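ok new one. same drill as before - structure tokens go in, u give me an amino acid for every spot. 281 of them this time. try not to just spam alanines like last time pls lmao
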């Protein structure tokens, strides 16, 4: 099965997408599953993971409603308030939804760069592991060194590094990112999502702009610990679904077919579904 392990859907009238403004004109509109369906068909994508885009529990419930009864959406990565005094209870309530496969605090938008290191976060991550939820890490390169001890302290929790940790492809300042990616890859409980790269590259990006980062992650994590995601509709800011999918297929073309199959579906099925006790088919 080919799985798009990272896409969004949103309705502007909901009013909780604080980052989504008219300045992002190509994506400042509603995006529904009907808009996504043609991309899935042309890309031969059979399943998807729907990911939160607003820092509200209401949006997560909205996404779960969309996913319910829709066979293509295999799971939802949602959001809960990790700073709430009743955070563990909130996680338990969210985990009661069968389609919820993970949670994603929007760390890249949190003013405190050391937020991940707060002692109060530890019992919440333990609760996530107890409910077999994945922690999607939406971080920037400066957060990677802070993520490392958290991954070490919670070996029972599965982590997914979104968007390769957002390497600074547009500037080429990648030395620290390369170092921290290599260190994270030494931990067995984290995998790396091949997504979001083109919006970190220069506007007229070419394959060569992406190749170095992709080859580094392949050498560190290996294809079995990588999973592809479109980051649609955000990817429309940098060429669109088909262009990014085609680029990813080209960048991985030299891998054996079974390893490509891991990146384009196998890893997502294992990490988000089978190991979480969710059905794949």
């Amino acid at each position: 099965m080919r799985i798009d392990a990272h896409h969004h859907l949103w309705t502007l009238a909901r009013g909780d997408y604080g980052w989504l403004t008219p300045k992002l004109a190509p994506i400042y509109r509603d995006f529904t599953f009907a808009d996504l369906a043609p991309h899935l068909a042309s890309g031969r994508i059979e399943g998807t993971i729907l990911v939160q885009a607003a820092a509200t529990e209401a949006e997560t419930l909205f996404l779960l409603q969309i996913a319910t009864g829709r066979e293509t959406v295999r799971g939802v990565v949602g959001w809960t308030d990790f700073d709430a005094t009743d955070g563990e209870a909130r996680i338990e309530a969210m985990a009661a939804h069968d389609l919820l496969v993970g949670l994603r605090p929007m760390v890249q938008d949190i003013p405190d760069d050391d937020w991940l290191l707060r002692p109060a976060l530890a019992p919440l991550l333990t609760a996530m592991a107890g409910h077999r939820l994945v922690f999607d890490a939406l971080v920037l390169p400066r957060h990677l060194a802070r993520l490392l001890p958290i991954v070490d302290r919670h070996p029972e929790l599965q982590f997914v590094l979104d968007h390769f940790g957002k390497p600074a492809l547009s500037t080429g300042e990648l030395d620290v990112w390369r170092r921290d990616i290599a260190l994270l890859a030494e931990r067995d409980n984290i995998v790396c999502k091949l997504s979001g790269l083109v919006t970190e590259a220069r506007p007229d990006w070419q394959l060569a702009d992406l190749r170095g980062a992709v080859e580094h992650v392949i050498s560190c994590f290996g294809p079995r610990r990588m999973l592809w995601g479109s980051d649609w509709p955000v990817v429309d800011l940098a060429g669109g679904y088909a262009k990014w999918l085609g680029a990813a297929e080209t960048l991985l073309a030299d891998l054996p077919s079974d390893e490509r199959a891991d990146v384009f579906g196998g890893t997502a099925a294992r990490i988000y579904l089978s190991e979480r006790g969710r059905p794949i088919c």
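Residues 110 and 139 are 10 Å apart (CA to CA). and btw The longest strand covers residues 73-78.
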